[in-house]
Amino acid sequence: MSPKVIAVAGLSAIAIAASGCSGDSDPETEFTAAFKKDFSTAPWINHITGVKRSSEYPTSLVVTTDLHKASETLGGAICHAGFQFADDHELGDRIEAVVMLGPDGEEGGCA
């Protein structure tokens, strides 16, 4: 085997390892899974459909739900969990707000 082939194979292996096993890493999917794991016993956890970081000002953690109108208490609990999640996963300094969205994209619940 030529040194070129070995070098290319080595670089390919490094690139695959750096990008994850499949190379199909999706931050929103990873955030959602981690959020659901962290709050698995919360009574509202089954209403969470997505969690992602948004770089729009202010930098925020966006929690999408299947709730059309959340009660103030439920929305407050989900938003509080969002801030706790950001702190626990060392995103706290970079997250300025938590935004809760309903299935229609309507914002609500977070103060």
Mind explaining what this structure looks like?
This protein is α+β, with helices and mostly antiparallel strands. It has a domain at 26-101: GMP Synthetase, Chain A, domain 3. It has helices spanning 3-18, 27-38, 72-88; strands spanning 48-54, 60-65, 97-101. A 3-stranded mixed beta sheet has the order 1-2-3. Strand 2 (60-65), helix 3 and strand 3 (97-101) form a beta-alpha-beta unit.
Question: Characteristics of this structure?
Answer:
globular; 111 residues; GMP Synthetase, Chain A, domain 3; 3-stranded mixed β-sheet; single chain; alpha+beta
Give the N-to-C terminal Cα separation: 63 Å
Radius of gyration: 19 Å
The secondary structure category is alpha+beta
The fold-level CATH name of the domain at 26-101 is: GMP Synthetase, Chain A, domain 3
Instruction: Report the top-level CATH class of the domain at 26-101.
Output: Alpha Beta
**Strand content range:** 15-25%
Strand order of the largest sheet: 1-2-3
What is the CATH architecture annotation of the domain at 26-101?
A: 2-Layer Sandwich
Count of extended strands: 3
The number of helical segments is: 3
Summarize the SSE layout with pairings.
Layout: H1 3-18, H2 27-38, E1 48-54, E2 60-65, H3 72-88, E3 97-101
Parallel strand pairs: 2-3
Antiparallel strand pairs: 1-2
In a few lines, what is going on in this structure?
With 111 residues, the chain is of the alpha+beta class. It has a domain at 26-101: GMP Synthetase, Chain A, domain 3. It has helices at 3-18, 27-38, 72-88, and strands spanning 48-54, 60-65, 97-101.
